[in-house]
Specification:
By secondary structure, this protein is of the alpha/beta class. The chain is built from 18 helices and 13 strands. Among the domains are: 171 residues, Rossmann fold (3-Layer(aba) Sandwich); 157 residues, no CATH class.
Length: 539
């Protein structure tokens, strides 16, 4: 099915899968053949992982190469016979950025964030997805479609913490993860006839994957009428944008945005300027699509980095090679100035982690050494005239935080928190479907507790993948307790469009009048507007 990642990548993520071999890795995996399923393009056979049917590397789109580079994705060609679905598909070409951490801790996180390896494995032919299901019967289970993080630059649906085994088994749902085009390959506004959708090709890949789910998931034991999309970081932004895309309407029925509010996309004039800078760097005439098609992928990627570096700073606005407000795929800014009417009837859950930015800033030279005067300057530089009041509110809310942690909080709350609040407020104002708001406050003890509650921490907790993510979540029973509650909430939302579960206190939908917020921790609680002072300073 896929373009052959080797056996290093086979079943790249599964504590449940690895248990079959009795080892931690599938160096020489003993295949146990699973069910055979008829898809719209041909028959496929997966494998068994315990009681789970797993299908890896299913092709949902034709290779977007040659004349299809930068074009909207096409359905795959049909095949004869039965194709193996035993290997995860190739990730997209990667523009990898290393999350900051101290060196030793960074090494320990490699099994959790395998992005360095993916820079070697990435290729343009990347339109593959993976499916986990208890049975290929007619039960019509809820479907949970995961959109990976990595901004719009790197990542894939094959990361270990995205393994769907435990989530699918616990909740009797069908889990789907997928790869799609990224960076310049997914979001270059080519600016030539016939390429009007190129600035959103990567988002249209996701739409095609959702079409595949609609047309095929019944054969995998799923319900095409009960599909939940969810994603973290860049994946959360992708969810935000899908809620505003006419092409995606009706393909999903509920949505979860984790630590990645996509309030705005790249304005067309910025996308056009970026494309012009790319053409100049490559030394080809703007709109010369043939010259663009003839370029090798590595040269195009290298030039895109130079072009992106010429973009001026835009605060918290989206920039670089990312989805574009092109008047077609995205006709308007997704959540600015209000919520998109096209998804008014779709329930949403949205939230963030208490200390998002420590993952990126904990190894900065200044971390642990920052003084008050420099902190005040950072507040002004990041938040302008709102900086001083926001810093005061952060000190009031987190009185034990050092200047270094307060500096991280300036970005966490200026971007992740307030972007999430904007979407929640605007969704609630429609009064058509509920929105629930959460925050994760559990602090991981890894690295001596340096990260507190960092970006990505909720992912293995939601997926129930604590054991293969101990390097991130920490030892002992506490992360298991948090995971039990978070996975309960996500599964309840998938089943019933309401995240309330017996393991949690009663959780009301978010409204401007009360702002109920679920604070996930070892013992979770619902609080009313817990970051009131910060919100008022930034509002």
């Amino acid at each position: 099915m896929s373009q052959g990642l080797d056996r290093r990548r086979l079943l790249a993520a599964g504590a449940g899968m690895a248990a079959l071999a009795g080892t931690r890795a599938w160096a020489v995996p003993p295949f146990i053949r699973g069910d055979t399923v008829q898809t719209t393009a041909g028959r496929v056979q997966g494998l068994m992982a315990g009681n789970m049917n797993v299908f890896l590397g299913l092709r949902y789109g034709a290779p977007p190469v040659g004349p299809l580079r930068f074009k909207p994705p096409q359905k795959p060609a049909s095949w004869a016979g039965t194709a193996d679905a035993l290997h995860v598909g190739a990730p997209a070409v990667q523009l990898y950025t290393t999350p900051a951490s101290n060196t030793e801790l960074g090494k320990s996180l490699v099994p959790v964030f395998p992005t360095a390896q993916e820079t070697l494995d990435g290729r343009e032919d990347c339109l593959f997805l993976n499916v986990w299901t208890r049975a290929t019967d007619k039960k019509k289970r809820p479907v949970m479609v995961w959109l990976h993080g990595g901004g719009f630059a790197y990542g894939s649906g094959g990361w270990p913490m995205y393994d769907g085994t435990n989530l699918a088994n616990k909740g009797d749902v069908v889990v789907v993860t997928l790869n799609h085009r990224l960076n310049v390959f997914g979001y270059l506004a080519v600016g030539a006839p016939g390429y009007e959708d190129s600035g959103n090709a990567g988002m249209l890949d996701i739409v095609l994957a959702l079409v595949w789910v609609r047309d095929n998931i019944t054969a995998f034991g799923g319900d095409p009428g009960n599909v939940m999309i969810f994603g973290e970081s860049g994946g959360g932004a992708k969810v935000s944008y899908l809620l505003a895309m006419p092409a995606a309407k009706g393909l999903f029925h509920k949505a979860v945005i984790e630590s990645g509010p996509g309030v705005t996309a790249v304005p067309k004039d910025r996308a056009d300027k970026l494309a012009a800078d790319l053409y100049a760097e490559l030394g080809i005439k703007p709109g010369d699509t043939q010259a663009l098609m003839d370029l090798p992928a590595d040269k195009l990627l290298a030039a895109s980095i130079v072009a992106q570096n010429k973009q001026p700073g835009t605060g918290f606005e989206r920039a670089g090679f990312a989805p574009v407000v092109d008047g077609r795929t995205l006709a308007r800014q997704p959540w600015e100035p209000d919520a998109p009417a096209i998804s008014a009837d779709v329930p949403v859950m949205i939230g963030f982690n208490k200390d998002e930015m420590t993952l990126f800033l904990a190894s900065a030279p200044w971390f642990g050494r920052l003084d008050e005067a420099t902190l005040a300057g950072q507040a002004s530089a990041i938040l302008g005239p709102k900086g001083a009041a926001t810093l005061a509110a952060l000190k009031e809310t987190f009185p034990d935080y050092s200047p270094s942690y307060l500096a991280c909080a300036l970005v966490t709350y200026g971007r992740m928190f307030m972007g999430s609040v904007r979407i929640a407020e605007r969704k609630a104002a429609q009064k058509r479907a509920p929105v629930w708001f959460y925050t994760l406050s559990y602090e991981t003890p890894v690295g001596g507790g340096v990260f507190k509650t960092p970006h990505t921490l909720e992912i293995p907790l939601v997926f129930g993948n604590v054991e293969n993510s101990r390097a991130l979540v920490g030892p002992g029973p506490d992360p298991l307790a948090v995971s039990a509650q978070m996975s309960d909430a996500w599964l309840a939302f998938a089943h019933r469009s309401d995240p309330n579960a017996p393991s949690l206190p009663d959780w009301r939908p978010y409204e401007a009048s009360h702002r109920a917020t679920m604070v996930f921790n070892v013992k979770s609680q619902v609080r009313e507007d817990p970051y009131y002072a910060i919100r008022k300073a930034l509002d």
